[in-house]
Amino acid sequence: MSYYETKLDSLRLSAREQAGLRRAQKGLGDRTRLFKDEEADPNKLVTTRGLIPSRDRKEETSQPDFLTEFYNELLVSNQSLAEQIEEYIRKNESESTQKEPKLNLTEEDPETTSFNTGTRLKIELEEVFGLEDFQAAAIVGNLDQETGGFKFMQELDPAVKGSKGGYGFAQWTGPRRKAFEAWASQNNLDISSYDANFGFLVHEIQNNDYFIKVMEKLSKTKNIDEATEVFSEGYLKPGIPKMNLRKKKSRLYLGK
User: Fold this and answer.
1) In terms of Cα–Cα distance, which of 112, 71, 254, 126 is closest to 194?
2) How many CA atoms lie within 13 A of 119 on its CB side?
3) 3 state DSSP class of 158
4) Is residue 214, in this structure, part of any structural domain at all?
């Protein structure tokens, strides 16, 4: 075998085989690789900071999924809020959209109490219309309910938005309010005064055929509850009658 053929055969050998051949030529045996005790575990990854567990190794205990817990808590919170909203809607739907009139405080004689005003009105209604005491008390109880105990005259929350609202003992509204204001002006009376309110009440009833019939029906009532209903439904016609309160106030002026 020529030199070139020998050289070519040696190139066909692998690097490991060539190294072994050279060691044999020098009279050396095979080299066995030794591993030290502190050599890195192949199941672990080596970093500049030391050894870290292999990714193939699972943790013994899993941490709770905090996103799931947060979602569940948020869901409970939203359900609670939804229940509160539904309760609020039910409460508001149970009440009529037309509210009982809210009125402004009238500038009156501080020595005149609301009960004294009602008592005076009851006596004068008996005299003018020839009513029984319980029938007059029924009128006063109704007007007391309309004005918050004769302390308030102007309606704060008109049923007709943008309107002036009701005014006076009977919360006269619209054309009736205009008629009241005109009558008070013609008689040089302050519309917030007792004389203006009582005077127009009598004037309106005596000059309106429908209200005359209402008073005739009132005069035929047998008890204060019936009288309260007749005057409320015939003369005032409130959006929210709250009849139990009207009857309760009527009885107060009857001493019951």
Assistant:
1) 112
2) 7
3) coil
4) yes
Q: Show the tokens assigned to 116.
A: 């004294």
pLDDT tens, residue order, the chain (256 aa): 555 555 555 555 555 666 667 777 766 665 555 445 555 555 544 444 544 454 554 444 455 566 677 667 766 666 666 666 666 666 655 544 444 444 343 444 544 577 899 999 999 999 999 999 999 999 999 999 999 999 888 876 666 666 788 999 999 999 999 999 999 999 999 999 999 999 999 999 999 999 999 999 999 999 999 999 999 999 999 989 999 999 999 999 998 7
Which range marks the domain in which residue 196 is found? 103-254
Nearest CA-CA partner of 201 in 218, 219, 215, 222: 215
Please check whether residue 180 lies inside any domain of the structure: yes
Predicted structure pTM score: 0.57
Residue 250 in contact with residue 140, Cβ under 8 Å? yes
Residue that has been written with the tokens 């008390």 in this structure: 137
